[in-house]
Amino acid sequence: MKRRNTTSKEAVLALLASSGKAMSQEAIVKQMEVSADRATVYRILKRFCEDGLAHRIIAEDARQYFALCTRCKDKKHDDNHFHFRCTRCQTLECLPSAVQFSIPKGYAVENVNCVLTGVCKECS
Predict the structure, then answer these.
(1) How far, rounded to the nearest angstrom, does the alpha carbon of residue 13 sit from its chain's CA centroid?
(2) What is the pLDDT along the chain (124 residues), one digit of tens a residue?
(3) Closest CA to 46 of 91, 12, 87, 84
(4) For 7-118, which CATH class?
(5) For the chain, first and last CA: distance in Å?
(6) Rounded CA separation 88/43 (Å)
(7) Contact (CB, 8 A) for 59 and 65
(8) In whole angstroms, how far apart are CA 63 and each of 27, 90, 91, 110?
(9) Residues with Cβ < 8 Å from 38, sequence gap 6 or more?
(10) pTM summary value
């Protein structure tokens, strides 16, 4: 489906691209140079996820973070990787390692959400 291009949408996309890390909706609203309310930013982020442009990470602090999909191939979303959230600077980033696990026979995994917490290399 063709989406309308708006100033707010471009601003959110540019901010996610320049950060290189996952960001919470609150952080995006605070850092945007264009004025947009929280509901508008959330709708934009939701559409980005639906279109395979971004993915949503729910961290152990129950916050939702959003990151551009740089690892996804051919518009097929692949979220089978670890994320790391720094407890000092509160940033969350995608790590390059794939998640490896085994489950008992008869189970089918539909979603993987692996968030490691600690201190990032910039803060240590």
Answers:
(1) 12
(2) 567 788 999 999 999 999 888 899 999 999 988 888 899 999 999 999 888 888 888 888 788 999 887 655 555 555 667 888 899 988 888 887 777 788 999 998 877 778 889 999 989 8
(3) 12
(4) mainly alpha
(5) 44
(6) 29
(7) yes
(8) 11, 11, 12, 21
(9) 25, 26, 29
(10) 0.76
